[in-house]
Each structure stands twice: as C-alpha cells, then as structure tokens.
Amino acid sequence: MVITKSILLALAALSLTLPVSAHQDGVTHHQNYEGQKPLQDHQHHNDGMPVQEAKRVAIIGAGSAGSSAAHYLRRFHTNTTNAPPINITIYERNAYIGGRSTTVNAHGKASYPIELGASIFVSMNENLVNAAKEFDLTVSSTSSTRPKTVRDSVGVFNGEEMVFVQPYSESKTGKWWSLAKLLYQYGPLAPIRTKRLTDETVGRFLNMYREPLFPFSSLGEAAESVGLLEATGVTGEQFLMAKGVGNGKFVTELMQASTRVNYGQNLGLIHGLETMVCMAAEGAVSVEGGNWQIFEGMVKSSGASVHLNTSVTGITEKKTAAEGDKKVWTITSQKHGDQSVVEKDFDTVIIASPYQYLDLTHPPTTLQKAPDKIPYVALHVTLFTSRRPLDPAYFNLDPASTVPEAVLTTLNVTEQSSETFTRGEGASAVGKVGFFSISTLRQIYTEEHGEEFVYKVFSSEAFGQDRIRKILGVKDEEEAGVTWVFRHLWNAYPYLYPRVTFEDIKLGEGMYYTAGIESFISTMETSSLMGMNVARLALDEVLGVEGKVKAKL
Ligand SMILES: Cc1cc2nc3c(=O)[nH]c(=O)nc-3n(C[C@H](O)[C@H](O)[C@H](O)COP(=O)(O)OP(=O)(O)OC[C@H]3O[C@@H](n4cnc5c(N)ncnc54)[C@H](O)[C@@H]3O)c2cc1C
C-alpha cells in the first residue's frame, strides 16, 4: 500500500497543478505587489551604548530563494543578541513576488487561477509547509479539483500506446486493484527498491537543514558529508542500476515519465539525485490561489523595502573613504518606464536568481570567480480551455474510454535504446510523442462559454493550434472550441548533468549566491533552503564572530 501510494502520488502529482480558488485578474501575472514600506532602522540604544549603524542588505530577486533569504534573515536577526540593526532591500524585475511561482487566470477570471510555473510541493518540504501554516494559507491535495468526467488519474504515453494507466482509486477495493495492477505490470522488486532508495536519499538530504551541517558554505562539501555525491555524480540510469532497481520497464516507463514531467529530461541525462527527488512526492499539495502567496508572506514578514518592476543593472565594488575605507557594493537599478538610474550602497548583496539571467550591464569585476553559465531547459507551457475532452483515439485508447487526467510521456522502445534520445536535450529528449505532459486540470464554468476543461501542456517546442486540434480529435478550429490560450516560455530548470561540484555560495566578501543549488535539486523548497542558508551565512559575517549567534529557527 505504502509503495503504491508513493509511486502513484509521484506520478499523479508531479508538476500537475490543480488550482482551486480565486486570486487575480487579467491573463498575465498577478496584480502588482504593493511595495513594502521602507523598514524603520532599528537604531535603539542598548543600555546607554551608542546607536549601532544599520547593516544594509540587498536581495536581487523575489522568487523562492530571495523571499526566503529576506524572511530568514529577519528571523535569525530577531533571535540574535547584540546584532546591529539590519535593513533589507529587495529588487525584483517582475511586477510580482514569486519568480517562477506564479499564476495566471483562465479567461482573466480571478476565480480560476492556474499555476504557470512551480505547481506542487510535498509534505517533507518543511520551509514551504511551515510558511504556509505561518501565513494561514490553505493548502490542498493536487487531486481535490479533478474533473469528474475523467476516469483515470495517470497515463504514460510513448507516442504509440498508453503503456501504463492508473485508475482513480476512490474505494478501498479500487486501491487494491490498483496495487494488483502495478505489481502485475512491473513486479514487486523495482517498486520496493525504489521506495527504499527514495526514503534513504530524502533522509540524507534533510540533514542539510540542521546543525552541524547548517549553515553550509560549500554545497559540494555538504552533499559529500551526507553521502549525496554518489547520486549527483552519475545519471539516473546509472544510479538505479547500481542500486539494484535495474533498467526495466518500471524505470523506463514510470520513473522516466516522472523525470520528464518534472524536468524535461530522460534518465540517461538527469543525475541520480534529481531522479530520486522525482519519486519523493508523498503528500503533494499546492496553495489554494497560488503558491506565490508563500513568498509574498515571507517578503512581508521580513519588513523589507521592496522595489518591484525594478531591474538591477550593475553590482560594483567601491571603497569609501567616508566609511573608513570599507568595501561596499553599489547596486545600480532602474525602475521600468523610468529613465533615471538609482545607485545605492550595501554591506551585503544576496543574488537570488541564476547569474546568467541577471543581465547586468555592469557586473562585479572583483570576484574571484563569477558563477558559470548553466544550460537551462527551455520549456513551453501552454494553457487552454475547451469544452471538448481529449480524444482517446489520439492516445490509441478505446474510443469508449476517457483520457487520463495526467498524460505523462516516455520514449518508445526504439528511442529508449538510443543515446540520442536518452541523453538528448529539447526535441531530442521528447522523442516521437512530441510533448512531456498534458493534463486536464479542472472543469470551469463561465457565462460566456459554459462548462469547459482547462488544459496544461509541457513541451520543448511551441504547442500550436494545429497540435491542440489533434489532441482534441478535430480538424476544424470552430469544432475545437478553444476559447482561451495562454503561452509562456520558461528557462525552467537546469539540465541536471551529473556533477560533484556546484557554484560557490559565497562569491566574495559580503556577496552570496543562491542559484547554484538548482544544479543539485531544482525546486521551490531547495531554493528556499538556500535562501535560508545564505541568510544565516550573511548574518554570521555581519556579526564577525562565530558563536555570538543565538539564531535558532
Ligand atoms: C514550469 C515549471 C514548473 C515547475 N514545477 C515545480 C514544482 O511543481 N515544484 C517545485 O518545487 N518547483 C517547480 N519548478 C521549479 C521552481 O519554480 C524553481 O526551482 C524555483 O521557483 C526557483 O526559485 P528561485 O527563487 O531560485 O528563482 P526564481 O523564481 O527564478 O526567482 C528569481 C527572481 O529574480 C528576478 N531577477 C532576475 N534578475 C534580476 C535583476 N537583474 N533585477 C531584479 N530582479 C531580477 C527574476 O525576475 C525572478 O523573479 C518549476 C519551474 C517551472 C518553470
């Protein structure tokens, strides 16, 4: 039972959003975030001691990493005695908080928000789970809004046939049938070993949240000390072979379907650790109305001064005579639509975006080593509404059946034997099937269009109207009845090639970098963990003396 639950949740829930309640207006991103009031400097007297000068911290990016850095910096600071006041400033290029966690509204209706980026997190994601509780957000299971007309929860399609179909298991009997089917199809060995390996891997990873490992100044060393480099250093394929899970159909069909829907990569490319992360989906949930609310809550709780619609264009080092020849970082920023450029000095800078996407015109020149450019998966997300259900014939299913809620994909048998596909990127990774996943998210009702399905497609190339018509089984535009389409191209996550070293966390004196963790594990939670980690490292640096910190979560 446990095995079934884990594996099926992994498949059913991964990246497939079932958003539930109201939020925003318009079809682009959610409403502009109301900038925070600038923080009051806490320049109090400590028992007659002179007023301490506030330390100025700039955070570039208000996604999971930047928001978490601000939130935990404030929390650690509050729990620290004799620390100078901290003044946090967040710069965010977008009009909203959340980065790759953001929603759009089907038909522009606030009652139908759809996750455009990161859609689920799981029960062991303690930062996100705790923050959702702290900010009183409602989380719900990813199956809570499933369309009632669909009979199966997950299918795995290889472009020729549906190689696995998991029916909804609402009754106890249903569950047992599902287990019987799973074991019948794949045998007990691979699922049981996978479950054990997943638990073991997750257990090792969780040590990174706690002393003595936390805070870690080198991701590679932290990963080594918990024994995870063994998993990051090889491909998923190699790791599963070495651990006795093998390379049978359970791996090439179910597990690969998971790595494809989550990361757009097959098992011959993606490393072993991220492969196991894809199987650790117990308790998959999302925040009603959008996961971005977690990050908005974090930013608010930090008391930071927030500059939305503002791009940082330069980070330069200067020594100021006025400040006793002390090194400071000058941040140059520009609010969109505003011609003027603003310069401000900071003691600490936290870069909370992949370095290559900062687009700095004046990058820091004094760093020993700037972070490398990492190839990211270009992922096309297509959202659309139609009254038509997906066509069973397109998926080679019995015409009387319904297409599963989540159609994941894998390579066909011929492609599976070719490294061009198993190690491929983009269109080579996708194979004949032509997309990574198609999910029927929910049914909605509007006066203009009546009852409709909302669909989400992940693909490596644009998923045009012709392809939409094909999966709906019609030739004619009018028949397809597509009433709303929203397309977005993400630099979604890194290609997770095997590796045992990661980008530096501390780039220089007073400068920290979060995005190196994405080549280790790329999720909202791990970005949050790194945000929390750099918050602690930065505060330790400000305090100057180790052991002076009483910071506890
Ligand atoms: C389609 C998709 C599905 C995903 N599914 C999941 C999932 O189900 N679960 C999960 O946990 N993860 C998922 N992920 C991954 C997850 O979204 C990321 O790992 C995580 O959100 C990264 O957070 P971050 O803060 O590190 O980066 P980001 O969210 O990218 O935040 C960086 C921020 O920095 C800002 N910025 C960059 N440069 C500048 C500048 N010069 N000046 C000012 N601001 C700047 C950007 O605008 C951005 O807001 C998914 C991602 C995508 C794209």
Automatic annotation (TrEMBL):
Q: Which UniProt keywords apply?
A: FAD, Flavoprotein, Glycoprotein, Oxidoreductase, Signal
A biological process (GO) of this protein is: prenylcysteine catabolic process
Entry keyword annotation includes Ligase: no
Q: MF terms per GO, please?
A: prenylcysteine oxidase activity
Against InterPro entries, the record matches this protein to: FAD/NAD-bd_sf, Prenylcys_lyase, Prenylcysteine_Oxase1
Span list, region Disordered: 27-46
Q: Which SUPFAM superfamilies match?
A: FAD/NAD(P)-binding domain
Q: Which cofactor does it need?
A: FAD
Q: Which domain of life is it from?
A: Eukaryota
Domain Prenylcysteine lyase: where? 172-542
Pfam families under this entry? NAD_binding_8, Prenylcys_lyase
State the family it belongs to: Belongs to the prenylcysteine oxidase family.
What's the protein here called?
Prenylcysteine oxidase
Q: Which organism is it from?
A: Choiromyces venosus 120613-1
